[in-house]
Structures are given as structure tokens and as C-alpha cells.
Amino acid sequence: MIASILAMTGFAAVVLAPAKPAFAGDQLTVTSWGGALQKSMRGAYFEPFSKVTGIKVTEDEWNGEIAKIRAMVESKTVSWDVVDGDRRSAIQLCNEGILEKIDWTRLGLDRSKFIGGDKYDCGVPSFISATVVAYDKDKLPNGPKTMADLFDLKKFPGKRGLWKNPYQNLEWALVADGVATKDVYAVLSTPEGVDRAFKKLDTIKKDVVWWEAGAQPPQLLADGQVVMTSAWNGRVYDAIKNSGKHFGIMWDAEMWGADLWVIPRGGPRLDDAYKFIAFASSAQAQADLTHYISYGPTNKDALALVDAPILPDLPTAPEHMANSIETNHAFWAERGDELRQRFTAWLAK
Fold first, then answer.
1. Among 17, 39, 43, 290, which residue's Cβ finds the most Cβ atoms within 10 Å?
2. Could you give the CA distance from residue 68 to residue 85 in angstroms, rounded to a whole number?
3. Which burial class, exposed, middle or buried, applies to 127 when counting CB atoms under 10 A from its CB (0-12, 13-18, 19+)?
């Protein structure tokens, strides 16, 4: 397995050199989101990387507080060498000059092989997660099948769970109303499109249970409070695999997005940061991550290495991506405040 990873990374010559003992300075601090994701990265990335290179990975956790990275860089006290960041933060910090611009030649990776690789100057797409519709298979053994079913109270009676946020709900409302997934943001960029989305949400508003934290949707299903709900795919997979829940996932119009590996500017271990990102971004390493958590690889070559039984559970399975929506963060950065205000007012009616 390790040999396969080495063959696909840009630093094979370095790690294939005669082994040397690890010194105290041979360590790298990698920061992610904690929980099941970080545990998965430990098995797929951190421990194998350390075994191959002799570089110890020290872990830290964060909750997306970009002010912390900004303060590190501005005070020249960078202690996080590599960070698993969300796209919105990565774009903002890149524009501020807080992150290193990625040199793909130095990584030894083909930028065109990465989903979204051409969109981020300061980040390497690391994995893809999605918001999906989860449902109780005992109560709904035959469905739902399309986004329209989420809004069809006659065909599928019962309460729905939705995130208490305009993001995702407005996009899905338009899809349920007949807008093609590829046209969602073009329609939502017009006043008429926004009105249309809220009008569609009106049709199920009285039957919605609103959730605010990612742990809530599986619990709402388990408690019988809803028959279907929007949810984060990793949470649903965990409930099915590790808690034995009889849930199903409806992937139509899944809303997906990628996390990014980023490097705070001015860190003392830039070479090792590049080595780690090259390792963790290899096709084999990304395929290995799927053994631990149901997030899809961004390296297009990794799909061929994913075990066949696992592929249907990933957001990046070709059949799931075919009618998917990539979250448009530029749209939400521009229109988010306005739409959240309207959403809050709509909820209060």
C-alpha cells in the first residue's frame, strides 16, 4: 500500500532515500476539524505519512476561526503547518495574503486531475462531502427518488427536517419546482427566482422541523419526528454503518463542496508541508480515506482505486454527481446577508 502511494506522489525520490532516524525537529502540525473526520485522516494520512518519511505528525483541531490563522501569520508565530480548511475561509485568507500560493509543480501533482483544482490559488482540494436527503426506510420503503419528492406531501406524507438556513433550501426548492441543477444559481440570481424558491418552500413550511446542528437529522429520523430530512452524508453513513439505523440516502440534487489543504504563510516547515499535501492528495491515499469515512476523493484517479462496495456511498460516485449542485460560495458571499434576512422574516410569518 505504501509503495503504491509513493509511486503516485511527488516526493518518491526523497522518501525512497536511505532511511534516517527522526529527530525532534522532524515534525509537522496538521490541523483539521476533529471528530470522525480527524480520526479517519489519522488512519489514512497521518500515520502512513509518518511511517514513510519519519516526520511525526502533531495534530491540532479548529472550528474554522480564521482570525487565529491571520494572527499567527501577522505576528510571525505560525505553528500550524497544514490546515484542512473550508473553501470560503480559504478564498478569503488567500485574498488577504495570509496563505501560501500553491506551487503544483513543487507538489508533483497534476492540477487538472483534481475536482475544483483550477479554482483555488491557495488550496489543494482534499475531499468532497455533500448535503443529501436522508429518509426512514421502514416508513418509506420505496422512496424518495427525486428532489420533488421532498416537497410532495401527498405522495410522501409526514414531517420533513430542513436546515434552518436559506443555503441549500432555496436551491432545492427551485430544483423541486423544475429548474435544472445546472441553472439553479442563474435563476436564484434574479428577484423572480428568489420569489419562486420561497413560494415553493411555502408548500411544505407547516410540515418542516428545523435543525441547526449536524447531529440532529439522524436523531430526528431515529426518534420518528420526521420521515425524511436534509443531512450531511457523513452523518447518515455513520448512523447506518456504526449505529445500525435503517436509513436511506436520496442523492438527487446533492449539494457538494470540497475542503482544501492550505498552508499558512511564513511557516517554518514549508518543505514538509508540501510533502504531506502531496502524500495526502495521492490517488491511493484518498482512496484509503474512504475506508474510514464516506467522503469522496478529489483526485480523479482515486475513484478507480475505491473498493466497489464503497463507491455507492460516496458523493463523488458518477451517478450521484450527474445531477448534483456544486455550492456556489461566490453567490452566497455576495447575496448571503440579504437572503438570510429574508429567510428569517419568512420563518417568522
1. 290
2. 13
3. buried
Across 4-18, 63-77, 183-197, 334-348, least confident range = 4-18
pLDDT band at 87 (very low <50, low <70, confident <90, very high): confident
Does the reported pTM lie above 0.85? no
Mean pLDDT of 258-273: 96
Nearest CA among 305, 291, 307 for reference residue 43:
291
According to DSSP, the β-strands at 27-32 and 56-61 are parallel
**If DSSP states are collapsed to H, E and C, what string results for 161-217?**
EEECCHHHHHHHHHHHCCCCHHHHHHHHCCHHHHHHHHHHHHCCHHHEEEECCCCHH
- How far apart are alpha carbons 260 and 282 in whole angstroms? 14
For the chain, list the strands marked E by DSSP: 27-32, 56-61, 82-85, 124-136, 160-163, 208-211, 228-232, 247-262, 296-297, 325-326
Residue 8 pLDDT > 80, yes or no?
Answer: no
Q: Which of 239, 207, 290, 257 is nearest to 134 (CA)?
A: 239
Q: Are 326 and 128 in contact (CB under 8 A)?
A: no
